[in-house]
């Protein structure tokens, strides 16, 4: 009885296991539909408790899925062998409705790939792009009228823009209002607007806002996909460059024409900038990006052209000033002294007065464009517009420093150092780099207050900026700042820590700065020594090695200190005494290089970065001469033991009956790093 009681419950469990294990074999040997019916029957026979039904229902679902897959596989085989048309539709529908179990047969995967391969998605997408209906931003031509000669010249890269400008001013001399309307319409075409203004509307400065609102509403109805400044169509590939050149030539040619010229008119009613400036400023404040971006670019380019003209006028004034002074001295030294001015002096005075008036007019133009456009657009929501603003501001400071190189304008670059966009920060750094590399002492003097104000931000960017390119650019700017003597000694150490940075580009960028710090420390150590010839070279090598190793130790200790979190310092009861404990004697300086965690990798990074900058790294004799010294008896005064004590007890360890020098410094890491650098070169 006991045996019967034991065997009776085992039978259904074996049948359940057998049912599960038989599934794949039955599906391969029997027809698909029969196997599915038999499995359903078996499932109905083994109904028991609710828990057993729930367990049995899952194999049934898997069996149904496999049945569908086997049916699809069988239909695929029949379709390939007999080529029957009635099985194509079920095959496509089953391919879509088939589930995606993990262990699908290879035949199912191949069928799925075949079904996907028949979908003509890629040809349709290519066809749509070729038409240019919805892809106007990429390849479609813009629906802009070609009814403006100036705009057509911008679309022709081979056009002689100076000839176009000469023809324009010839037309301007005959009908100024019509010529100004043509230039305004050219700017409208650059905005993607096909509407035009006539010669009367362009002179009506009181109706500029209302007229532009009407033009903008017309553009909104057209729903143009793009505008020339951002279009990717080949016709507009060089549009920005052509527009910049045209505006520069217009301003320069207008300034060179005889007075009164379009740039310095006798009346503001027909002046080039007095008429166009309200239109450009109003465009730059539009809510429509095409008008706002184009108006801002035109204003910035005109400001750049005005800076060049103002620079020429300033030089002309300086020359006239020297000529007037020479004439005054010549008249004073003449034998027959006359009280009145000579005709030459009167002529020079007249020219100087004219230069003064033109300079005042140019300053007014510069101030109006800056206050009405730049001040509002340098913080525009569009990062591209902000980038254009800071780039052009850097050019203005380089071209016309007497006007723009002051704290009033430099602060805008400093504020943009904290911009959220990477390209804006990078352009701000590039603008500063062009200024700090200047050899003009007046430029460096003008940057002193700015440097003191924004130096902490620059140091922070060099160490923590999210973009590697920005960090590299900031490191180079800080190197230029240190070259000009504007970086304090306590501000050099945080920058020197970048020689251990994980980014190779950052280490390479800061290598020049580290070299400058090292050279300064070597010169300081050699002061007071009167050695000459070969002895001086040896002293310089020893001082170079010692300064390099001491600097590395100092930077490693600083890196370890900055990497500790405040919580760790609070948990340590002896944290308040650590500063006094870390004052190691110079005898332990060399051993510290490789005794701390992560120091071996730091040494390798530093050597690889400084290999091309410091020749002392290749002086193996000088390096080993210093590394093999007995540093155990060094004092706290920074003096190591003499060479006569090189083989102290602490330097020798037993190894196989022979003694070798250890010295507290594992030279292998240093030599391995140098060998790797030499191998890469």
TrEMBL record:
GO CC terms: chromatin; cohesin complex; nucleus
Compositional bias segments (type: Acidic residues): 76-85
Biased composition annotated in UniProt, kind: Basic residues? 11-22, 115-129
Q: Which SUPFAM superfamilies match?
A: ARM repeat
Q: What InterPro entries does the entry give?
A: ARM-like (IPR011989), ARM-type_fold (IPR016024), Cohesin_Scc3/SA (IPR039662), SCD (IPR020839), STAG (IPR013721)
Residues annotated as signal peptide: none
The chain positions of domain SCD read 374-461
Q: Where is the composition biased (Basic and acidic residues)?
A: 50-60, 342-353
- GO terms for molecular function, please? chromatin binding
Per UniProt, the ranges with Low complexity bias are 575-586
Q: Where is this region: Disordered?
A: 1-136, 320-353, 563-587, 634-659
Q: Name one GO biological process term.
A: sister chromatid cohesion
The identity of this protein, by name, is SCD domain-containing protein
Give the organism, scientific name. Rhizoctonia solani
